[in-house]
Amino acid sequence: MSTLLRQHAEQLFAEELAELAKQDTEKRPANWKLSPAGVVTYLVGGKLRNGFQVTPKYIGNRRLMEIAVATLTTDRALLLYGLPGTAKSWVSEHLAAAISGDSTMIVQGTAGTSEESIRYGWNYARLLAEGPSEKALVETPVARAMKAGKIARIEELTRIGADVQDALITILSEKSLPVPELNIEIQAIRGFNVIATANNRDKGVNELSSALKRRFNTVVLPVPESIEEEMDIVKRRVDSYGGGIELPAEPPALAEIRRIVTIFRELRAGVTTDGKTKIKVPSGTLSTAEAISVVNSGLAMAAYFGDGRLTAADLAAGIIGSVVKDPVQDKLVWQEYLETVVKPRDEWKDIYRACRDMGV
């Protein structure tokens, strides 16, 4: 068992990737570890010819994954777009792992991300001692991916300032990175491409310029269509998390996962699942990722401050923390939902009491 807190996708699913590579007889683009069809199988799961079962990493529309993979075989970069928590980063990591065998060439977008984080930087001690040289050049993950013919990942592209975003235009259009200080350029070799993720809901979003948008093919990842689909995602991710950190707690019952997912879906939609009661919508996104976080937090509570069995009392704080982002507006929304929807449901009495005991 690995002692790493979090393994990269290519480490965690090394057996599946190796088996797929052995069984995959389809044509592979230059520097790809698997064929496009093999990459899609890795993402959505399936049974191989020898009976080996590949687990699904993305639960949803298979066609979206086919479009994403097909994009990466061309000279167009891929932009995974959608609401927060729709598995954009998860899909990005697994795409890079399946295609390049390396998901670590990543730039994390923030308001403080500079152009040097995307293009290149300098080892200033060496620069002062020896002057400008290739040895003094500090290559970014994007530059390394270009030289190795691998996939570079840029997370939260819209959090990066517009002037810094546009540093990608030359890389994406010319497939080269000029270094004018040395009068050289880094040219991308076959297999190089970029996967970026972005959302338009969070604060601090910077719109992409039309010039940059034209260099991406955009795939919008939607929220899960059905409650069963969302429950399956939550269960798989929770099981993976619990095994990774070895929590001394029982796996959560599907009934508990269903209740969490139901609460989140109803508050997202502004109506109960039976369509009979309209409810106010909180300011947060209440994504599938947050549902996973609530269950994981509840498991930790059950493991270390309970009897190891997940209960409503273990989940209450996580639910309230996810819903009540604005202490005034969201508190009123949650209290109304608690009284009008949760309280009348006989099988939800324990959740109602646990949440009321929290004083919210």
What does this structure look like?
- The protein is of the alpha/beta class.
- It folds into 2 domains: 9-220, P-loop containing nucleotide triphosphate hydrolases (Rossmann fold); 227-357.
- The chain is built from 17 helices and 11 strands.
- The strands form 4 sheets. The protein has a 5-stranded parallel sheet. It has a two-stranded antiparallel ribbon with strand order 1-2. The chain has a two-stranded antiparallel ribbon with strand order 5-6.
- The longest helix is centred in the middle third of the chain and has 19 residues, at 227-245.
Question: Would you kindly provide a brief summary of this structure?
Answer:
By secondary structure, this protein is α/β, with parallel strands linked by helices. Helix content is 47%, strand content 12%.
Could you outline the blueprint of secondary structure elements for this entry?
Elements: H1 9-12, H2 14-23, H3 36-44, E1 46-47, E2 53-54, H4 62-72, E3 77-81, H5 88-100, E4 106-108, H6 115-118, E5 120-122, H7 124-130, E6 137-139, H8 141-148, E7 151-155, H9 162-165, H10 168-174, E8 176-179, E9 184-187, E10 193-198, H11 210-213, E11 216-220, H12 227-245, H13 254-269, H14 288-305, H15 312-323, H16 329-342, H17 349-357
Parallel strand pairs: 3-10, 3-11, 4-7, 7-10
Antiparallel strand pairs: 1-2, 5-6, 8-9
Characteristics:
360 residues, alpha/beta, Rossmann fold, 5-stranded parallel sheet, two-stranded antiparallel sheet
What radius of gyration results from the CA coordinates?
23 Å
Q: Describe the main β-sheet briefly.
A: 5 strands, parallel
In which range does the helix fraction lie?
40-55%
- CATH topology name of the largest domain, in short, is Rossmann fold
**CATH level 1 name of the largest domain:** Alpha Beta
Large-scale geometry: globular
In the residues, how many domains can be counted? 2
* CATH architecture identity of the largest domain: 3-Layer(aba) Sandwich
Number of strands: 11
Helix/strand-derived category reads: alpha/beta
Strand order of the largest sheet: 4-7-10-3-11
- Poorly predicted runs are none
Task: Quickly count the helices.
Answer: 17
| Overall pLDDT level | 92
Tell me the CATH superfamily of the largest domain.
P-loop containing nucleotide triphosphate hydrolases
Summarize the helix and strand pattern as letters: HHHEEHEHEHEHEHEHHEEEHEHHHHHH
Tell me which oligomeric state these chains represent.
single chain
Strand content: 5-15%
Distance between the termini: 41 Å
